[in-house]
Amino acid sequence: MGEYIVGTVRHTLLEFLHILVGFLPRMLAMLIIIAVGWVIALLLKFVLRRALALVKFNQLFQTTNLSTVLTKASLPPPDELLSRLTFWGIGIAFIFLGATALGVVALQELIAKFFLFLPQFFVGLIVFFLGLVVANFFGRATLLAAVNANHPSPRLLSNIVQFLILIMAVTMALDQMGVGYHVVLIAFSISFGAIMVGLAIAFGLGGREVARRILERRFPEDKKEEEDEISPL
Amino acid sequence: MADENFLSDEFVRQLIAVGEVDIVVGVPTFNNRETIGRVLNALQVGLVKYFPRQRSVLINPDGGSTDGTTEVVKNASIQDFQTLLTSSPLRTMHRISTSYVREQDGKTALRIILAAADLLRAKACALVSPDLESITPEWVEGLVRPVYKEKFDLVTPIYHRHKFDGLLVKNVLSPMICAVYGRNIREPVGAEFGFSGQLACHYVAPGVWPKDFGESSMGLWMTTAAIVGGFRVCQSFLGPRIHVAKSSEDLVQTIQHVVGDLFRCLEAHESFWPAHSDGQPAPVFGFEYSVALEPIRINRQRMLQMFRVGVNELGSILESIVTPATLQQIRSIGQLSDREFRFTDDLWAKTVYEFASSYHRSVINRDHLLQALVPLYRGRIGSFVLENYRADAEQIEKKLEALGAQYQSLKPHLIETWTTKK
Q: What is the predicted ipTM?
């Protein structure tokens, strides 16, 4: 009986040592891969930061207002943001690579799923960025047209246009990423519908007099304000 | 030699049948039934009266009129010159009509006239609008004689205008062309021109004809291309210009098209204008006279109010176009009351120059940039009207000379900002 117990304990310890001996090199490999990846990520971050500064990367985004958006969100400027994203992206990639070296099947499946998700994530980011550019462009176009048409609330109109386009862009980006598809779709439909119904009620019932004045100004019978007769050319 | 591929075979046959001529007068038409008869008669009388011995041809490209304009053109002729002149025509006056597909910008008509003048080896040419009500036979002499007799290459018109008419020309186009191109031209975007056959050939040469200019500013392109090409330019006083007003562009569209084309001219000629500095006056032909003109109604308060709203609401856009110092000055004048409001000459010239440089560097979408200029232009016009409400023609002339001097003195600022990246 005693020998059986000792034999079992010895066998278990030997098994454990055997697993440990097999696991330690993989652990070491993982750590080495992560360390190398960290160094590469640091180097790339440094090089990318210098290269973006040389080509004046931030100035490319001046027309899109991205720098202002990032500053308001307490985020670093575009070149620094891209450098940091690159650093973390490469770092995380090497961590996952190191994790596959451990040989844990469940972990490997999770990592594979994550890498399958990455392309959709980047496409979603591109969709969001494009939406930001489009929102900024049309917001500015609306502002200029409203100011030159002597509209009473040009800034409000411009902000509404920008907001609506941004909402659409965020929804499309999340849809592309496949994040909470049904929740996003339902939330967007409800919000958009509510905004439109609210505007219709506010304008049609609550703003009847304003609506009448706007229409009278747009389609006047008797002009109250005299236009200029001077011809620029 | 011009590229003739866009001329129809029938038109070319008619040109060949006419042969070489001394004078070509071009009148493009599109639904001008009301006025074209009178215009053609005035041109015929002018040619007979002032150029009786010269071979001349009237060329009429029509853009597909549907109101009977082509019939009026066909039938317009003077049966009895003796009721109008003491002499009769010595030569046959030819008339050639052709039709073309009217593009959105209508430049094809001008190109047809230029190509025809080149093919006919005309010595002198004139371009006349079909919607004029104030044209007289003397306009033919005014446009053609400086070319035919005095050997100038381009004749730009001078019209007698109300002092507050054509303020975009007086405050932006004319002083900027004087300072930048070195020629003092009062009406660089006139609708009537005289030009030599040599210049016509130059205009339609491959690589010269512009692809992206609007119809309303082809005069601007013709003027600047002639200056840059080293051709002799002069001006001719024609009198008041009264025409049938069609549905025209509003101020925003006018500034987008005309000022945009001016800035495009600067880009196209940027190897020329930095080196040319002296504003030489272009000689003026014709006897200047004035007549009473209909008063113009101006809503100055509305202009200044739109200026203030524009400066307040478009601040973030203006920040990317003009320098901080200029923007600060613009904002400070926005605080002034209507009575004290002054958009000074130097501030206006600097603003226009900085807009031109920013347009060149495409700091924002170019259409948006030009739209952002509109409220500032309104402020400038409001100030101009306020300062010159009681001024007579001579005083206004002095004010415009002072404005031109500001544009001239600030040209180094334009050159500096043109090449500086923000």
A: 0.84
